[in-house]
Amino acid sequence: MLLAKATQTSALDSRLTADDAELLRQMLRAWGDLDADLLYKGSARGGHLGDEILQAGQPRPPIDLSELLRSEFWQFQMEFAEGWEQHPTMMQPVGGMDRIVKGFESRLGGVIVRKAPVTRIVDGDRKVRVRYRHNGAEHEITADFCINCAPAYLVKDIRNNFSRAYRDALAVVHPGKLFKIAFQGRRRFWEEDDRIYGGISWTDQPIMQLWYPAHGFHKAKGILLGSYTWDPEQGEAWGRLRPEQRLAAAIAQGEKLHPGYGELVEKGISIAWGKVPYQMGCSPEFTPEDRARHFPTLQTPNQRHYLVGDQMSFVSGWQEGAVRSAHAAVEHIHHRVASGD
């Protein structure tokens, strides 16, 4: 509305012709659902009071501008879905994102060695040796190349002979402090009571948001995300609580969004990535200065050692980044082998 008003003054004359100003005014009227006087007095987009199908609907009255500004919803939640990494439609593997991992696992058979923490990496001109502990004994494997997807902030603490520049680059990567809670609904109350089908409810409480499933509509039960926060301080605070304390706190906060929430959900589970052994965080992070200085070093192999994963992309925290970085490493190795290296 304010921008539409500005088109009626000389404020935009230096940028717009009279015809362009009129076209902009028409666009803003359509976009903002303004009346002939360029005022916003409510919109059908905000829903109606009562039945708008069999009766003439009465638009909800507009919320006062100062109240909207004080809500701080505009800071990032309002345009959250407009981010390039959040655009719909986002495909989901049936059964959850770990189905992708299980798919690889089913084809690799006995190649995977579990419960085998790496203790040393020795990189060389022609070979790379990796030592690991398994079933109480030390083992070593020698290979032409090593593709390493362990977090850089953990790799730096493994004994190695990497170059000084490579070790310095590993040291600047820090773990993200993300945290999530999920609940199973005793019934799909968000659909039955509130007609919510997918999407997010935002809150300024520590849980930050509730995510509703975009699948399984009208089934008996469903899983909803009872909290998802990436704020470092909040993530650490949640991580300090015992699992049962986390669930109790999330239920108490969810009550403000869905009255009776505690009786509507069951079988909760939480994950504080900073507490997960051999991961100790997620979505590895660089400061802008460290990324500019050290990221290229880590994207370049240290002799025959390649660091991969979402950390070696500009979309940390996304499987797309992990897969693309692995593809880049394999392609680089292919060219080295093809050239006789």
Can you tell me about this structure?
This protein has 3 domains: 1-39, no CATH class; 114-175 and 284-338, FAD/NAD(P)-binding domain (3-Layer(bba) Sandwich); 178-275, Polyamine Oxidase, Chain A, domain 2 (Alpha-Beta Complex). The protein has helices spanning 2-6, 18-32, 65-71, 98-108, 152-155, 164-171, 189-192, 232-240, 243-254, 261-264, 288-299, 319-338; strands at residues 48-49, 58-59, 118-123, 128-134, 137-143, 146-148, 159-160, 174-176, 179-185, 199-202, 209-212, 222-229, 265-272, 282-285, 305-307. Helix 6 packs across helix 11 (288-299). A hairpin with a 6-residue loop joins strand 10 and strand 11 (209-212). Strands 5-4-3-7 form a 4-stranded mixed β-sheet, with no helix packed on it. The model has no long low-confidence stretch (mean pLDDT 91). It has 341 residues and is an alpha+beta fold. It comes from Hydrocarboniphaga effusa AP103. Residues 61-333 form the Amine oxidase domain. This is Amine oxidase domain-containing protein. One of its GO terms (molecular function) is oxidoreductase activity.
- CATH architectural category of the largest domain: 3-Layer(bba) Sandwich
Q: What are the segments in which pLDDT stays under 50 over at least 5 consecutive residues?
A: none
> Strand share of the residues?
15-25%
Strand order of the largest sheet: 5-4-3-7
Supply the helix-strand structural class. Answer: alpha+beta
Tell me, what is the CATH class of the largest domain?
Alpha Beta
Distance between the termini: 64 Å
Give the overall average pLDDT.
91
Q: Major beta sheet, specifics?
A: 4 strands, mixed
N-to-C SSE series? HHEEHHEEEEHEHEEHEEEHHHEEHEH
Number of domains: 3
Please count the beta strands (DSSP E, at least 2 residues each): 15
> Can you say what the CATH homologous superfamily of the largest domain is?
FAD/NAD(P)-binding domain
> Count of helical segments?
12
User: What sort of overall outline do the alpha carbons produce when their principal axes are compared?
Assistant: globular
Protein name: Amine oxidase domain-containing protein
GO molecular function: oxidoreductase activity
Domain Amine oxidase: 61-333
Organism: Hydrocarboniphaga effusa AP103
